[in-house]
Amino acid sequence: MNKHLLNIPFVLFFIMLLIFFYLLVIDRNPARIQSALLDNKVPEFEVDSLLNDEKFFSSKEFGEQIVIVNFFATWCKPCEAEHIFIKKFSDKNKLKIVGINYKDNPKKTIKWLKKLGNPYSNIALDKKGKVAIDWGVYGIPETFVVNSTGIIKYRHVGPITKNIYKKITEVIRKTN
Amino acid sequence: MNKILIIIINIFLTFFILNSSYAVEPDEILKDTKLELRARNISKNIRCMVCQNQSIDDSSAPLAKDLRVLIRDKIKEGKKDKEIYKFLTDRYGDFILLKPKIKMNTVALWFLPFIFFLLGIFIVLNHNKKSNKS
Question: Residue A154's beta-bridge partner residues?
Fold first, then answer.
């Protein structure tokens, strides 16, 4: 009995080692945080719009069709890199794209969109970053997929790459 | 001699004050010290989502500043600490708390060290008892 008891710490240590190596080997990024808003309704907000004289009302933008929400800024280089895929969602996939312009200069944004093309149906101006906090955003670019009932189904942190584009297309295909 | 001692004490005090400095900027500080203390206490338990190993009280990341300002705004609005924590966890999940809540998925995190400690004591005592007997 005594001998068996002395083995317990070694067995526990071995189990902990196994867990450690398992977490090390599996494909995961501990810095990537799961969104707390997944499967929840989109946050409600009302801010100025970059493209219209009217205010941007979130209640008017969501709930009728699948919408891709993209947090971007002209000062963010990865945003420029992913823009080609955002355009693809609009041109090829014919999806509604809503942009949230994060802490940016509206004049610069208009210039930027003229240069790179505008895939957004509407752009909300998040001058102080409050909308981003409401969406649980912690680093732009971030992209969300919202279903036709206004529920957030997917969130991607970082620029959209070819693989992420495919992944999001798949998510959209499965979303209602 | 006394002057040298005062200089040395001053250097030490400056060093310790600088060492315990935080990222809160003067324009963020609330005039009411009681409210400011509440904001500081909450900020110390909120993780900077950009740096991840720092609290927003220590971090100079822009998002940390935004969250510090937001916490102070909520306090000024009369929100309770519990409501502010809920607002933040609703958006960023429990990961934003540096001290995780005791929940089903964190029970092991909170209690396993005590269980291991007790198990260790039990094994050592049991082993000693048997050794003494023999």
Answer: A145
